[in-house]
Every structure is written in C-alpha cells, then in structure tokens.
C-alpha cells in the first residue's frame, strides 16, 4: 500500500466493514515507537446523534409534527 502525494491511504474494505468505519467517521492515530494505530475516535457518539445535534434548532417552520408527517406521507 502506498501513501499518496497528499498523505492519504485507502483503508481496505474488509477492515472498514469490520470496524464499522463509514464515510465521515472520525478516527484517531496513536504512535508507539515505529507503529501507528488507527481507531474510531472516542467520545463522539454515534453518527446519527452528531447529525441530529447539528440540525437541532435549525427548523424555520411552525408546523406541528402531525402536519409534517401528513406532508411526507403524501
């Protein structure tokens, strides 16, 4: 495996699947001597939680939940 000119490497699919590394997953690097370890970043919660936290309080409509659901159900 080679490092690109931008310092990037591709994590093999089998490893991504085994560790649940999805796009936008935060990772940490740990250096021990000549070894580098990569793992999911700790304390960030689940991906869905961060998306909801980011969007919380951004709505601009005053519709009630039942009204929104009626629109989405057609």
Structure description:
This protein is of the alpha+beta class. The protein has one domain (13-72). The chain contains 3 helices and 2 strands; from the N terminus they run H-E-E-H-H. It has helices at residues 13-19, 47-55, 65-72; strands spanning 27-32, 35-40. Strands 1-2 form a two-stranded antiparallel sheet. The mean pLDDT is 86.
Keyword list:
single chain; 74 residues
Average pLDDT rating: 86
* Strand percentage: 15-25%
Q: Total domains, how many?
A: 1
Number of helices: 3
Distance between the termini: 50 Å
Label the structural class. alpha+beta
Strand order of the largest sheet: 1-2
Identify low-pLDDT runs.
none
β-strand number: 2
N to C succession of SSEs: HEEHH
Helical content, roughly? 25-40%
Alpha-carbon Rg, integer: 20 Å
Largest sheet: 2 strands, antiparallel
Describe the oligomeric state of these chains in a short phrase.
Answer: single chain
Question: How would you describe the shape?
Answer: elongated
